[in-house]
Amino acid sequence: MAAPRLILSIASIAISCMPLQGPPLAAQDLVQREQAAFRAAADAVSSSVVQIQTFGSGQRAGEELQAAGPTTGTIVAADGWIITSLFSFREQPASILVVLPNGKRAAARIVARDFSRDLALLKIDANNLPVPQFATSEGIQVGQWAIALGKTYDEKFVSESVGIVSARGRAYGKALQVDCKVSPINYGGPLIDLGGRVLGILSPIAPGTFLEGDSAELYDSGIGFAIPAADVLARLEQMQSGEDIYSGKLGIVSDSTNELAGPVVISGATPGSPAAKVGVMAQDQLVAAAGKPVEMLAHLQNALGPLDAGQTFQFSILRQGQVQEYQCELAKEIPVYYRRYLGLRLADLPAEQGQPAFAIAAIEPDSPAASSALQVGQRILRCNQQAMPSRQDLRRIIAVAELDTPIIFEVAAPNEAEGTKADGTEEMGPPQTIELLPALWPTELAPALPQSLTAVGDSKTPASPNQEETPQPDASAEKVVEIAEISLGDFPNTAYAVVPLASNARPLGLLILFPEPGDLSQEKAQAYWQEFCASQGWIVAVLNSGDPRRWSREEVDLAARILGKLENAYELDKQRIVLGGIGVGGKLALVAAAAQVGRVTGVATLGTELKNIGLRVENAPLRSLDFLLLGTPSDLNNTAKSLRDLGYSAIVVDAPKLPTGSLESIPAAPLTRWLEGLGRL
Question: What is the domain extent for residue 598?
């Protein structure tokens, strides 16, 4: 019976391979039908898409006001309400005109802004405007067709860009992600489906962006975002009343800034924040937020992302084995955070029973520590009841300290009369409890490095970075540094590091330097940096551009690769990780630091033009960045002020007409004092 079954199977295959009746559907016909569907969907919405023209503050050419450039808007209510992006409306234009599909022009005014989603609501005097059909969020599927519409090029016809919905819940739960072309051409326009329903409003929202100004725009990378229509409509009445919308802020500071790290252990709460007011404490573990479990930091960020200031936020904390429920009102603003300061420098001692041990290596003049009973040589036993704290523990405690609440230290000094124990460790005197009120981080360079900096656990003499002369190589001197080559794989860039041969008692600092395009030779770098590296315990890594004529945006990411390699090879001091740049290299250092907040603690720019550079994110505990700007003060003071307004420390050093092509021209004294100042607590 097997043979007949085989014959039937072959016959079935033969029949299935025979041509179908009638001509097959041609590929060209499929394309035409597809294009017709796209066109029909766009036509269904085009009458609700308007062009918006903005005009400057009284600038005229002849008799006409000069427009900043048209943008797109979408009608959301028949009586003259139009939603658009915040791209052209972060500041108030002198006048706004809306060009309706019938060619009529109407004056518009800004009623409200949604700063969380980068949207603005306009009002014109009109009635019976065509309102599109809006899709529900539940019906939006990843992979479905999407069409981005704009009206920048032509006030009568919409531009179209076709793609798919590639993700939901981006920008921390606030946006749809699409691969349509989304740019200033269609910001504020609708993202629609094949049925002509509005899925969302195209927005320049950028998830997690820290830097603004010269940083690359996301629309160049094939990624665009749209705020779901349901979320826009849910806030329409609030915005129509003239109320601006802001992101809701909680103020929790986590141990790790890695979004995929878990569990979420809390270092503390930003002083004055909602989290601080409800009693969140260090070492609490966040286990749930907005009714969903929290296993990593990204879960918390996505729970907070869609919520606005003034909304209620519920979360659960695990503390000493018990889950506690909290509820607070999210804030529009958290008081600007300024880094805390005690004026202590520490030296590592041999670990005791597997626990870290530290002694006070130096005390800064005119600091809180200087006015206390703390002394050089004392060992820190406890801090705020925590026994044998690590450096990171101390950083966390100080970072979230209230200025009116003392930090309590328990210290002990070596008992010289008793000598050493049988195991070689020092006999200690009786413990002493000392309370210390923190102060704000200094806003000026220290006049000199403390001379006792290397006195504990290190026999070398402190170096000469206080001198005003630029270091010069000494051919007869003993070799104190070596050059370590750094491999960057397929990248054409060369990179190397000046590394001290024998470090002092503490972990090494790291400066990753972007020079001007070209090749900064190892000999020049070694001659300039070797004395500082050897005496103060620093590695200076130099990354040369792949193209001797220019830097590229892709090379910014190489800083993280270099940092990772050196972290694996050496013990680094997490308080002294700096990115620096000479000339245009300073801009790359800023962009690279923005991508590594939490890993990098300082940025130094040397002769860099910074007029178009700014930060989007305020300072925060354990994410602080210190800035040193060397150059002409009149060119840098505005940038420094904007950084200080956000809570950052920004010091300007007068170095006029700095020839950025010459390393020897960089003033050594202020640069090295600033670098070493980062190691203070």
Answer: 481-677
